[in-house]
Specification:
Layout lengths: L3 E6 L3 H12 L4 E7 L2 H10 L4 E4 L8 H8 L7 E6 L5 H6 L4 E4 L4 H16 L13 H9 L2 E6 L2 E6 L3 E7 L2 E6 L6 E2 L3 H8 L4 E5 L2 E4 L5 E5 L2 E5 L4 E4 L4 H14 L2
Parallel strand pairs: 1-2, 1-3, 3-4, 4-5
Antiparallel strand pairs: 6-7, 8-9, 8-12, 9-10, 11-12, 13-14, 14-15
Helix pairs in contact: 5-7
Length: 258
């Protein structure tokens, strides 16, 4: 996938330096530019193209939420992720179309999954979590085709809507879609393609073999040094590297819904 060109925005210089360092060493970024306030950020956005803006929320003058609102009016807006010390702004972040919401202090383990989701979303022609801006031409058509999965089964053609899927299981060159009503059709599609297409629709990887619908999660459970995610009809193990990202996404979803 194409590396991300990122604009980092924070009025606290130590935090900005740390964010720029994490971005530059992530292996997922191309150009990383730092701006100490929203005014400088807008100048950079005027002069150069970016895939992602990562911004603090509480900044003097134009804050991060206001900056995101301005960015949302661009013809081809970059995705926006917030990194903040304030948990209470999650709902407002969703309202302005944030692709992620991370609490300080930030580390590479929590940043990398968010960068990967943005990469996957943009590669699939989608937009950030919460955003529903217009895509164009073939990109939008490709993204829309994954809203419904066509299943050929026993001489019949079945249509499975994305919203009906609770979790997905990798099976070689196929995936098995486990639906809320108990069906489990096998479909010839790469897990990576499905993950990319559904990254902005509330699905996230919890294991090399499993993709889950966040809205199906009933509980995140620690047991014997391992972590499990509990769905209506199954309990799945969560790979260690996905635990913090899954936790953050569930908190973000919960705040959006209340």
């Amino acid at each position: 996938m194409k590396l991300l060109n990122v604009l980092a925005v924070d009025d606290e210089l130590p935090a900005l330096d740390e964010l720029a360092f994490l971005l530059n060493t992530s292996g997922l970024t191309g150009r990383v530019v730092a701006a100490s306030d929203s005014t400088n950020a807008l100048r950079e956005l005027r002069d150069r193209s970016f895939d992602l803006v990562i911004a603090d929320i509480a900044m003097p003058g134009l804050g991060g939420l206001e900056l995101a609102s301005v960015i949302g009016r661009f013809a081809d807006p970059p995705s926006v992720v917030f990194v903040t010390a304030h948990a209470e702004y999650a709902l407002e972040a969703f309202d302005v179309g944030a692709a992620g919401y991370l609490l300080k202090p930030l580390d590479a383990a929590r940043l990398s999954p968010v960068l990967r989701r943005v990469m996957a979303s943009r590669a699939a022609g989608g937009v950030g979590e919460g955003e529903r801006g217009p895509a164009s031409g073939g990109e939008r058509e490709e993204h829309d085709r994954m809203d419904i999965i066509v299943v050929e089964q026993a001489g019949k053609t079945l249509l499975v809507e994305r919203s009906q899927v609770a979790w997905v299981e990798s099976a070689g060159d196929y995936v098995r879609l486990h639906t809320f009503d108990g069906r489990s059709p096998l479909v010839r599609v790469a897990m990576s393609r499905l993950e990319a297409a559904w990254a902005t629709e509330g699905f996230t990887r919890v294991h090399r073999q499993h993709l889950v619908n966040l809205r199906a999660v009933r509980e995140l459970r620690g047991e014997g040094g391992k972590v499990y995610v509990v769905l209506p009809d199954v309990t799945l193990g969560v790979a260690r590297r996905h635990v913090r990202d899954l936790h953050d996404q569930l908190v973000f979803l919960a705040r959006r819904q209340h």
